[in-house]
């Protein structure tokens, strides 16, 4: 009798446990009934780090298995070097991260000088990923559209000549549409607007975009931007 009661109880428990649970669907339909990615429900692929994050415990960061790559801020303008760059490169490299470096581009210094600042402080041997250049309305204040395009093209040519690859351009969607399209539509592109889902961009090589809200990673005191690959992009697309 006791055995029969235990059997019925065990069977009832299995039925309860097997009931389907409600989960947020990582795919949702837009107004046109086509499937689009819901960024809040999907994992990120990488993060970008600068001195703003302060000290980073890379051993703890390595426990987050969603982080496939890391972009580190190296330089800005003609002379500025990120105060945490050297330490971040060394530690991130030692813990096996795929590393890329980026430069924030300014309109107030010479293009050649900015490339030399970047190239001087970036250890080519420690780089796994295509270099990145960041620019937006604030960084190119005072330049005409032609000056922006010609100066960025020169910086990209210098990067390509030394590293063997065009740099990824990191900017906002509005800046890209206003200043860069269509001349730079064949360049690798990172849209750094914070979005809930992958934005629509007129670019042949739109590789990455930024999530709606910064998040927290083990080992990083301050919040971190979460970066995702676009649909169809993989790590090999950004290998140096």
Note down, in words, how this protein is organized:
By secondary structure, the protein is α/β, with parallel strands linked by helices. 28% of the residues lie in helices and 22% in strands. It contains 6 helices and 11 strands. The strands form 2 sheets. The chain has an 8-stranded mixed beta barrel with strand order 3-4-6-7-8-9-10-11. A two-stranded antiparallel sheet has the order 1-2. Strand 4 and strand 5 form a beta hairpin. Helix 4 runs parallel beside helix 5.
Spans where pLDDT lies below 50 across 5 or more residues: 1-41
Q: What's the arrangement of strands in the largest beta sheet?
A: 3-4-6-7-8-9-10-11
In one word, what is the shape? globular
What separation lies between the terminal Cα atoms?
A: 70 Å
> From the alpha-carbon coordinates, what is the Rg to the nearest angstrom?
22 Å
- The total count of strands amounts to 11
Descriptive labels:
240 residues; alpha/beta; eight-stranded mixed beta barrel; globular
Quick structural overview:
The protein is α/β, with parallel strands linked by helices and 240 residues long. The protein has helices at 2-17, 58-61, 85-94, 111-121, 145-163, 173-180; strands at 27-29, 35-37, 46-49, 69-76, 80-81, 98-104, 132-134, 168-171, 189-195, 206-211, 225-229.
Give the SSE layout:
Elements (H helix, E strand, L loop, with lengths): L1 H16 L9 E3 L5 E3 L8 E4 L8 H4 L7 E8 L3 E2 L3 H10 L3 E7 L6 H11 L10 E3 L10 H19 L4 E4 L1 H8 L8 E7 L10 E6 L13 E5 L11
Helix pairs in contact: 4-5
